[in-house]
Write a structure and sequence with these properties.
Length: 95
């Protein structure tokens, strides 16, 4: 979650392990990338990272004041705030 936010925000990281794995799986298939079935933890981590990126992009494309976006989408805003906090705590972004 933290790394995915840092990537979306243009922070120190150029990619997150989960986003990179998801991109490779989309392109080559899970068997070619991992040589086995994914674990539930891996699936959840990739899904969470993609969700962070998608919500970040949705907010960025809203072309409105972020506080107005947060009022319109309070659950997504809370989710993104958790990602921001995690990224700041791990030192991926200034916070």
């Amino acid at each position: 979650m933290a790394a995915a936010y840092a990537v979306a925000d243009g922070g120190q990281l150029s990619t997150s392990t989960e986003l990179l794995a998801a991109r490779h799986i989309d392109r080559f298939g899970v068997q070619a990338v991992y040589g086995r079935a994914l674990t539930c933890r891996e699936i959840n981590a990739m899904t969470l990272a993609e969700s962070v990126r998608n919500v970040y992009n949705q907010r960025a494309q809203a072309n409105t004041d972020w506080s107005a976006w947060a009022q319109t989408y309070p659950d997504l805003s809370a989710f993104l705030n958790r990602a921001i906090k995690a990224a700041a705590e791990l030192g991926y972004i200034d916070g």
